[in-house]
Write a structure and sequence with these properties.
This protein is α+β, with helices and mostly antiparallel strands. It contains six helices and five strands. A three-stranded antiparallel beta sheet has the order 4-1-5. The protein is elongated and about 65 Å long.
Length: 170
């Protein structure tokens, strides 16, 4: 398993011809903010979908609804690149930036949860299938992430409104 948050492993995936100053300059702050907003929105959507479901220690019937070979979309919520190499198949999954989606089977996700639980439990990626979320009991983690993001958004709104008031006074 390789974990490179700075994205240094991705250099080999992009040819030098593809990288130039114009490309870098065109990557605006707005597009980064839009991506961040989309990810936060996706997290909030998942959490709101999950509000109807309750976690319990008892066997959940929805766990049986997902097969070990079914693929689940997994979205990165980390800035920079992250890489996961499966100890079972040797397959490498790369998320180059926040919002990127890779498809992993339940079998791969189980292996990930056993070998590198930080991906699912911190979380660095969020699963976008309710059955998989229930199987790995991730609802409480996603709720925490959503609450932190809502708090950050609220704090930013308060700071902006205070700054606007100060500008009006002066």
């Amino acid at each position: 398993m390789q974990l490179l948050i700075d994205g240094s492993d991705i250099k080999g995936d992009i040819s030098k011809d593809e990288i130039n100053n114009d490309t870098i300059r065109n990557e605006s702050k707005n597009s980064i903010e839009n991506t961040k907003g989309n990810v936060i929105g996706a997290i909030n959507d998942i959490v709101s979908d999950l509000e109807d479901f309750e976690e319990s220690d008892e066997k959940d019937n929805s766990i049986e609804d997902i097969g070990m070979n079914e693929e689940v979309p997994c979205m990165s919520i980390q800035f920079g690149g992250i890489v996961y190499t499966s100890p079972i198949t040797g397959a490498t999954y790369k998320w180059h930036k926040i919002g990127d989606v890779e498809y992993l089977t339940i079998k791969e996700l189980t292996s990930m949860n056993n070998s590198k639980p930080v991906f699912l439990n911190r979380p660095w990626i969020i699963l976008q299938d309710i059955r998989a979320i229930n199987k790995f009991r991730l609802m409480s983690k996603y709720e925490e992430v959503a609450k932190v993001n809502q708090l950050k958004n609220y704090s930013q709104q308060v700071i902006i409104s205070l700054l606007k008031r100060q500008l009006k006074v002066h």
